[in-house]
Fold each of these.
Amino acid sequence: MARLIYSMITSLDGYAEATAGGLGRGADDEEVHTFVNDLFRPVGTYLYGRRMYETMVYWETAHTVPDQPPHILQYARDWQAAEKVVYSTTLESVSSARTSIERTFDPSAIRALKTAAQADLTVDGPTLAAQAIAADLVDDYHLFITTTAVGGGKRFFPDGVRLDLDLVTTRTFASGLIHAHYRTR
């Protein structure tokens, strides 16, 4: 059975989206990006909400931008090779290959997808992930924690859900960013 992974860059105080401004430094350097490439290369399907998809669709054409470094080109190739499912009631069409739209998030459909999949899946974006977490679908959590506390926004973990997790690995990058991998018990 494939695993469902939730991963986001988060602020030091636990926000995946800041109310104002970015989440802080550390996430955009080559060392971190190469680590992310290697970590998520085996993923076969990305589950996105509309807003996250609109951010990530950049990777459909990133390889056409002149003078891209190798780690960016590699991520674009990996992203293009994966299936993408966008959960949206408003999105009319998609602008990337291997992408479909679902109008509702159905936990039983995700369970079936996990059972049938040959490769792991990710759920991306705090709003969609909150639904997957509440339905007890997420197997692994990868937090990329910046050095900045932002004071508010959308939390990485949804309110009202208790999780008991085991720490699998950690890594600290030269930028100060920390990767923490947790697995559900």
Amino acid sequence: MRADAARNRTAILTSARTLLIARGPEAGMDEIAAEAGVAVGTLYRHFPTKQDLVREIAEDLGAAIAEVLDSAAARVAAGQTTAADELLSLIRRVVVDLGEERLLRAALSNLSPEPLHAMRAHAVEAIESLIATAHRDRALRPGISAEDVGLLLAASPGPDVPEPARSRWTELAWLALSDHCR
């Protein structure tokens, strides 16, 4: 791909992501092209349909999340950290640091569900592995499951809540999960 075409593609993806976060699925292709500073025809050459554009954004998001989870599992396997520390880090990252990604996931869920299903399946598998290891280490309360972590994350405060409150929520959630009394 020529350098200018690669720049245009990157600008389109960045603009689409920004507009999907801000406006949700209603963001139009004309708006995305204008935000990216490209002609509508250029946008359509890269992404013939809005679904193609959204699918690529969803796949990129899924790949980024998979990389985070796989890196966490690798650190635990290498003995560099504990599964409990990685779970806490993951919860903090989702609740405090990745507010925009949560909004993007919500916007994409109605537009491109296939890549998101794969992302969820990979996330559940990785979290189940971390939880099993944390249970073996006696760092979690008995009975805590990946579904419990998912429920906590689904009910967590969004990016509209100030960061100190999201950080405190993370601490409280961890107290609910951890077996700190042993």
Amino acid sequence: MAARNVVVAQSGGPTCVINNSLRGIVEGCRRHPGTFGHVYAGHFGIEGILKEELLDLSATSEEEIALLRTSPAAGGIGTCRYKLKKGQDQDFERVVEVFRAHDVGYFFYIGGNDSQDTAHKVSRLAQDRGLDLVATGVPKTIDNDLGDGEFKLLDHSPGYGSVARYYAHYVRQANEENSGSAPADPVLVIQAMGRKIGFIPAAARLADPERTMPIQIYLTESGLTLQQLGENVLRQLESDGRCIVVVSEGFDVGELGTIRDNFGHVQFSSSQQTVAQIVVNYLNTLKFPVPGKARGQVPGTDQRNAIAYASVIDLDEAYAVGRHAVEVAMTEGNGWMATLLRDRGRAGYNIHLDKVPLATVANSERFFPKEWIAPSRVDVTDAFLEYAQPLIGEDWVSVPTVRGLPRFARIARAFAGKKLPPYVPQTYREG
């Protein structure tokens, strides 16, 4: 059987390690030239496939592909927030047309809940249209919300370990600032990403597992109100003279002037006000038992692309799951997502690679376990620490530099020749 071409694409928000999954796929395919032909990338995700903008990754050298290990975010091939929704029949048909025109037999989609749903839908449509296509999902999300509540589909998403490490370091450093400037700024409010799922703000506890710092963590799942937050902060000021508040961007503080992306997800960083601003403004209306006022910090997209804070464990696992996806595609065929699961019966931290049906994981959503929220509702339990601590690793990542600046991968801008008429994605025409 002749080798068939490959398309790989990314979707949704990037991570520190997403390019390592891409590297795993590219290097895995290159090891099997009898099975895989040209490896193309959808430039800016599914949008690039719809527009027939296919980067020929076969034109990029092995050295540059290797540098994807420590190249953060999605600068290499691009990502998007374009969702193939029910009723967008023209878009789905176009994907199949592009794949058929370029003899694509393998499709790897790196992403979260919505991406796995897209991969599943494309795989089914291809079968219905008589296209021999193997679609395989590769997990990615900093929110860690892909999978199930029992962690049997996916223990954790590649990307989460690095953002957890970021917050462990960020909060530990913020504590030094807060402790030194408490007479003027006794309260520091830090807003964390994660929409309405609390895995990211929970990672703040990794900064202080012994609980010696005056930290309060407000997950959306805690169910607390802004007024209760204020009361808790006042009590902390009475006992410690200062307080660090880590609050989820999805914490309920009322209307924010909500803006949503094309997936329907709230873009809290694009709203008219941030949760941190509202919390700081509210706290500063209260009478503190100590001098000074509250101030806030809202880390931006650096929390998902600061490669210097990446977890080495996360980097290695992201690569491994990408390589495993290639093996799954070769041996198991269509309709699977590569996954990683924890070996809970063994001493220490160990994972193994496995697979789950795309139909099962598509649009799945995992919430922060209620049993991991402390009784105080402003902290997490040790069970969460046991789960999350191994994911952040021990060592600092080594990033290649040239003249003191990081050397990131340079993907050749070589595109496959177009074979179809131009196409405008359906949502843009209907919008």
